[in-house]
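Consider this today:
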Amino acid sequence: MTEAAIRRTPGTPCWVSLMVHGLTATEEFYHALFGWEFTPGPQQLGPYVRGLLDGREIAGIGQLPPDRHLPIAWMTYLATDDADVTAETIRSCGGTVGVGPLDAAEAGRMAIAADPAGSVFGIWQAAAHTGTAVAGAHGTPVWNELITRETSTVGTFYETLFGYDVEATTSADFDFRTLRLEGRPVASLHGLGRALDRDRGSHWMTYFEVADTDAAARLVTELGGQVIRQPREGATGRLATVADPEGAVFTIVQSDPVV
């Protein structure tokens, strides 16, 4: 387990959050799956808690108003030094800003936006709250990937927004781009073409580190969730795509050891 960096370079994924209808039941699910404990967070958008491991912040979960029937999905926040300037850039590049920018008490300043393909993401200007504080442990975010129809147009949007170096891997049947900052890979874009799930559309996917992918997938089912794609070997470890009881989809991955 390592401490995450305090200041993130703008464009670096720095936080993930989830809005649900049943906050207490969702807390119970992620406590059982990842071992998170919970503490209250900023309440500007309603009841909100932060998941903790050993007292350090990992992710956020908020409660939707009863009359709001929005898709239940994990959302990736990208770091910024100025949320207002970034929000204006999002608009000028063909994206939309649905919430904010607004202050989240002393924690920081945030906005919720969508890219031109409709993928929802957050931007976070850190103050007291710098984002996910732990990396490399069971239950911590390890990667963020944009699942979309094609990566060229949306890749240009993110490149303009945050100045990523974009490394493309494309062929007749594979459309993938790695986003790099200061030479370091921080996120990826994966184009699925017609295979993109129409019900979900273009979206950001959060990957969470687990100690044992197969055991975690079984536990998801036991806790009332669902395994969307069974455990399998990937480029960086053994992974599975799962959903919590409210339908929020995420990927669990048991990373290969670094040698």
Notes: The chain has four helices and 18 strands. The mean pLDDT is 93. The first strand starts at residue 2 and ends at 3. The longest helix spans residues 23-34.
